[in-house]
Each structure stands twice: as C-alpha cells, then as structure tokens.
Amino acid sequence: MDATHPIWRTPAVQEAVAAEQFGAVIRMTRTARKLSLVRAGRLVGYSASTLSRIETGQRKLTDVRQLRRFADVLGIPPQLFGLTLPAGAAPAGAAPMPTAPVPTTVGETSREGGDNPVQRRELLAGLVGVTGTAVFGAAARPATARAAAVVQELQPQITGAFAPVGVNILASRLAAARATFQACRYHELAGILPSVIATARTSLDEASGERRDQTAALLADAYCLASDLCSRLHDDALAWVTAERARSAAQVSGNPASIAEAARMTSIAMRRHGHHDTATRLLISTALDLGAGSRKPAPGLLATYGSLLCTGAYTAAQQGSRHQALELISEAEATATRLGGTPRQHTEFSLANVTIYQIGVHTALGDAGTALDHARKIVLRNLPTPERQARFCVDTARAWQRFGSRSNCFQALQAADQCAPEELRRSSVRSLVASLLDTPGPAPSGLREFAVRCGAVTSG
Predict the structure, then answer these.
(1) Helix (H, G, I), strand (E, B) or coil at 344
(2) What pLDDT is recorded for position 108?
(3) What is the pTM of this model?
(4) How distant, in Å, are the alpha carbons of 1, 128, 147, 164 from that of 245?
C-alpha cells in the first residue's frame, strides 16, 4: 500500500480523518493489509490488547512520534495524521507541494487563524529548530552519592511492607499527597510520598493490561510530585533523578499527559543545573509531540500543552532569550483563552496561572514595571491553592525588588507568609529576604524579625 491506494479516498477513511479518529484509520489499514492484531502490534511495538484499545478509541493516540511510527510501519500517508511529509517529499503521484512561508511569531498564529495543526507545530519548532527528536542526551545528568542514597529511601528494600492496591486507591493516595503539596506542607509531604511511590511500584509489578498502563501513569505522577518537592527543598540532584524516574514510568504508561509532565519536571531540573537551552528545547519538542494544535484537542491535553509553554517561557527568560520567552508566553496565554480560563487537571493551568508566569518572565527579562502591571491583574483570594497564592506573592516580591521598592517587596513577602509559611523556608526566598536587609537605607519595621523567623539570618 502506498499514498495512491484507493483506501485513502474511501468515505470511511475520509470521515475518520476529518474526525481525527486515528485509531479507526489504523484499524482500516491493518484490515486492508490482512494483519492480525498480534502481528500489527509486534510491528509497531504494542501488545494486541493495547493496539485494540487504540483502534477503538479507548486509548487516544496524540503523540507525534507514535503517529509517525504507525504511518511508517503501516504505510499510512502521514498527512492523514496531520503530520508533515519529510523535507522535499510529496505524495506519490502528486506534484511537489510548495513550501508555505512560516509566520514569524507564535502569538500571530493564535490570533490570525492559527488553528492549522501543522502550521502551529512548525511555528513552535521554528523557535529553537527542534524536530521532535529527543534532546535528553545533550546535558549530563547529575549523579551524586547523596541523590542515589535518597532514591533508595524512595524505593524501600522491604517491598512486602507495601502491598499492591487498585488504581482507585492509589489515585486517592496520590491526590491526598498532591493536596498536601498544594497546601505547601512540604515536610509533611516528605513523610507521605515515599510510601505512595513504593506502593505504586509494587502495584505496577502486579498489574497487567490497561490497569498496568494506569498504574504506571500514577507512578510517573508520584515521581513528578517528588521531583517538584525536591526542587522546593533545594535538592536539585535528587529532583533530576526523580524526574528521570518519572520519565521511565510515563513511557511505560503511554499516557501523553504523564509523559509531558515528566519532561517538564526534567526540564526544571536541567534549568536549575544551568542547562537552560537544552531545557527549553525539551519543553518545546514535548509540546509539539502532544498534537495540541489540532482543531479540537481534549481540554486536559491543551492544559498540559499550555503548562509546558509557561515553563519554557520562564526558562528562556532566565537565559535572557527575550524573543523566545515572549513568544512562548504569548502562545500560552492564547491557549488559556481557548480553554476559557478554568484550571484543568493537575496543571492548575488557567489565565491566572499564565499571568503569574508573566510576572516571573518579565522580572527575569528586567521589565519590572511590566511584571507589576501583570501582578495587578491578580486577585490573591481567587487563586485556588496556598501554593499558587504563595508563588504569586513571591514572584511579585521579586518584581518589586527589581523595581526598587523595598517596602512593597517586604509587604508581598509578608503576604506569602500568611498564605504558606513553609514557602519562605525555600533557599531562594531566604536569599531574597536577606538581600532586603543588605539594601542601603532604613529597613521596614519588622524586617529583621521576619528574616530571623524564615531562616534568612540568625538571631545573633
């Protein structure tokens, strides 16, 4: 079968393509080629049961790399999946397709009819020249004895103490752990999370079929939460190790949202080790692979896409890449608008969350006045969790510091303390408080006592 085969022009295939029911296209192709589920599954690297769920739509196929593998192995024209042809290639029997000019900015795409999924992917790829290939090998991973030792604590040797549980029970425990994180009770979470991870690992060993996929996704999410926690506790080496373990579990699950979140946490670890460019490339390539530029993406997938763009914008801003940062945050804002501004899934992605990132992006770029303009759009009490409230207050404090207002910076930090006291124990926040004490001129009343209480200076 090639691109001229009559099957591609049948009403059934055309209807499936129009509805983006890619599983149905795969099923019709497999049937036309007289391949069994077992045989086709082996060719593309899936079990027969997983391939059956893909064909019936029970498991969505949105990852660009997976789609391209199906296209290559089964001989499906890639454009039916919304994929671009290889450079210089054209459908068999057709004249070469002219190369369309790529618009200059992501923001212009979303405002000027950028609903074309291929165009949106090409736009994002153009920012850093990525093609969707893996970029993890570009930066050395941390390998410290301390990180390895703590990882062992997250994988207790006495596995019998953690009996396998069902998906619903595991999801409930993970939700409780996530709620603890969102309340900024970090030290409490440090006592909860190892047992959640150990239980998830034991459960994964005992699971099969769809239950295995779901359990692997939950394990990946638990490792992501652990990575985020390690970053908050300023253990950057362990944050990277746990993010990598999240990636491994996410790949087992095949869940696009879990794969994307694991990549996002890995990028944060990369950034904190100084690999800003590699981290940004990873975020953009992962966003491309989600296929969220389609006309009717699932809301959760779109939220994951927007979350990746926010993190990419902040990473680029910290590197000083102004154009790249502004383009990414512009596309994130457009994505939040498409969603209607309501937080989705575990990403807490919304217009308000994009605005918080805009504060951080413009502060990092040296535009403190613009950052504060964005801060004025936020109503603190309307933010959904103490973690988001504290993040907003701390980012606003940094903007005020850059703006040169010591008193307003201190007021924002006091507000963060009211929302989430443990947030002020973070190393970066303590450094900010200490810098206020070192600023020339009269110190705001209560600043030294505040600095002692959060650990920025000693009482002596």
Answers:
(1) strand
(2) 33
(3) 0.68
(4) 40, 26, 13, 19
